[in-house]
Amino acid sequence: MSNLLTASIGRKLLMSVSGLFLILFLFVHLTLNSFLLLDKVLGFKEVGQMFNAGVHFMGTNPLIKVIEPMLALGFLIHIIYSVILTVQNMKARGPQSYASGNKTSDVEFASQNMLVLGIVIFSFLAVHIMNFYMRMKGFITWEAGEVEFPFFGSMAKGENAYALVHETFKVLPIVLLYIVGSVALAFHLSHGFWSSFQTIGWNNSKWMPRLKCLSNILAIILGGGFSVIALAQYLFF
Amino acid sequence: MEKTINITLKVWRQNGPKEKGRFETYKLDKVSIDSSFLEMLDMVNEQLINEYKEPVAFDHDCREGICGMCSLYINGRPHGPDDDVTTCQLHMRKFKDGQTITIEPWRSAAFPVIKDLIVDRRAFDKIIAAGGYVSVNTGGVPDANSIAIPKVDADEAMDSASCIGCGACVAACKNGSAMLFVSAKVSHLAMLPQGRVEGARRAKAMVAKMDELGFGNCTNTGACEVECPKNISLSNIARLNREFLSAKFQD
Known about the structure:
The complex is a heterodimer. Chain A is mostly helical. Chain A has a single domain, classed as Up-down Bundle (3 helical TM bundles of succinate and fumarate reductases). Chain A contains 8 helices and 2 strands. In chain A, strands 1-2 form a two-stranded antiparallel sheet. In chain A, about 30% of the residues are buried. Helices cover about 35% and strands about 15% of the residues of chain B. Chain B is built from 9 helices and 7 strands. In chain B, a hairpin with a 2-residue loop joins strand 6 and strand 7. The longest helix of chain B has 16 residues. At the A-B interface, helix 1, helix 3 and helix 7 of A face strand 3, helix 7, helix 8 and helix 9 of B.
């Protein structure tokens, strides 16, 4: 284990593991987001109760309180090491670029632009945190009032998080920004997912196409899911 | 009748490692499309010598695609526009009449330019010297059939062993990473019983040397695999990662 993180493959391992951890988070996030649409889709009378219950659960569950700092750490590691790796790679590439450009075919667009996509996602993340997280956690005040909703068989009281999301997604530029963020995320994942398995060492000529296919499916589910939810909120709610 | 083309060349000229380089343009007429790219460069040099100018320095040796000596980044691709060949196997029929061909050396901090199109690729030799071998004790030669090797493993080891160490992977990589080269060298030994014994030590030593020499970190773009004249597969890199990580976790 000694000096693992000073080796190139060790640093890549950190990127890979933190990336996979963040993908897990994205699935939890998408599941909760789907509540924004689900109660209308399922035909419940009061729209927003399901989402409010979900937000209440995430805000009060002790397990989430433990995972939240871990998640922040995951983001930090992924971002810091991406910068370290990129700086090292630029140095390794040397100052002189090719005058005749790069005409290598069949190279994924995403794989060549992971940093740029990451920066787009990071910028989106900053706006996103300001929009919702800071407000739901009470760092920024907002007036939505308390509502009652069913919570594991009984009724619970909590802030009307649904109203906040609903109001935010009434603004078209914000919806468009969320779609841009989601599409960048989709491209980022279409390379990142299979690449992380490659870095861990779980790959061969048989699994390469399978993992790449799975990457694309994952990218469509997550990137598409987040975009569709934001757009549906704007159009139908 | 032999078909010929007229071409314009933009060639990188650099007098020495520390000097500033620049592109120079040469016109070359009546190049047979059946000639190889290096034969075309020989024609350029003959023309330059006749004009009392200094010929273009470029690496070459066997001229049949097995030594890994020729390099050259031609029109945006290492080893030129053809697939799965080295520069010496590239033919002028791949170019059009009147075309401008840009020729550059490999660009990578670990491969500094020595002169014109020649780069110093001794970094690869240093990586091999760090562990890319099997320690063999002298003595009687054992019978080859006494160690059974599955055909699949033998084939895959042979595929990995076909790496000629030309450096096209590094030249193509946006990160200047040598992972395809190192992984091929680690793989072809790791898949055979004779090389397996030293597998862990080899992976650690070669990766450490690769990092020390300033090669970049692999981000699995796959450009190396596309440009490799010997079709070395990206799955070698996964195997190297596996070898290296399991060796490290055992420490």
